[in-house]
Write a structure and sequence with these properties.
Elements (H helix, E strand, L loop, with lengths): L2 H7 L1 H15 L9 E6 L6 H14 L3 E6 L7 H5 L7 H5 L5 H4 L1 E3 L11 E5 L8 H6 L2 H10 L4 E5 L18 E7 L5 H13 L4 E7 L3 H4 L5 H6 L18
Parallel strand pairs: 1-5, 1-6, 2-4, 2-5, 6-7
Antiparallel strand pairs: 3-4
Length: 247
């Protein structure tokens, strides 16, 4: 769970996050994308780690970043960042006080010396009886607008899309979705189904993060999409929806 310490000294992890940020900056032909949902197909694929690292690296690069934990069933962001979880998303969506009072600033000085930006976090808050019912409320867009005001980027950690429907109520409120898959464990069918569900809910999948890729196993010249999935998603109206081999 010592992710922050690892992030501060892991050059490879930092470079991977920088590559992700560069990809996001090019994802829409140069148009600025500001709000992102990070999700996965199934549990334990590393979505929270990716969300936290992305937010940290953006802050290090000079952006004013807000990280939101919308995984109301199994929240992890407060543990990784060592912040309080008494108030958060659930509190605000249930009509609690103004969003500013629930947002906590993260001290980056010791972790990322010379960080040019800032990082704030809105944790999940106390676990509700029905996470889906809470996220279904129309007020999420208002909360997002309130707490996201003045931020350069908002990163939202959300539940796996094939486990529960919670994330599908979030994807329509953001500029794009980052789908995290795990090397060697995510099935091709699950990847396709997750992408399809996000798009059916009105979300836009910006791309995929292939997590737990080990260069020692595959070699430095290995392109993971060739040997792992060996597929391309058919575009709208193209093909019959089945996998096509990369060439």
């Amino acid at each position: 769970m010592n992710l922050l310490a690892a992030f501060g000294r892991d050059v490879v992890l930092g470079q991977a996050c920088d590559t992700l940020i560069s990809s996001l900056s090019l994802a829409d032909g140069g148009r600025t994308l500001r709000t992102f949902v990070v999700t996965s197909a199934q549990p334990a694929e590393g979505k929270t780690t990716v969300a936290v690292c992305l937010a940290l690296r953006m802050a290090a690069a000079g952006k004013r970043v807000l990280l939101i934990d919308a995984d109301l069933r199994r929240p992890m962001v407060h543990r990784l960042l060592g912040v309080d979880n008494a108030q958060g998303v659930v509190h605000l969506l249930n009509g609690g006080s103004a969003g500013a009072s629930a947002v906590q600033d993260v001290d980056l000085a010791g972790l990322l010396p010379g960080a040019a930006g800032t990082l704030a976090v809105l944790t999940s808050g106390r676990t509700p009886r029905s996470a889906t019912a809470v996220l279904q409320t129309a007020s999420f867009s208002h909360v997002l607008r309130d707490v996201g005001a003045g931020r350069d980027a908002v990163v939202i950690d959300s539940p796996p899309v094939l486990s529960v429907s919670d994330s599908l109520w979030l994807v329509r409120h953001v500029d794009g979705v980052i789908l995290v898959l795990s090397t060697g464990s995510t099935a091709e069918a699950d990847a396709r189904q997750a992408k399809g569900r996000i798009e059916e809910a009105g979300g836009r999948v910006l791309g995929v993060v292939l997590n737990r890729f080990d260069e020692r196993l595959h070699g430095p010249g290995f392109h993971p999409y060739h040997a792992y999935y060996e597929i391309e998603f058919d575009g709208p109206g193209q093909g019959d929806g089945r996998a096509s081999r990369n060439r």
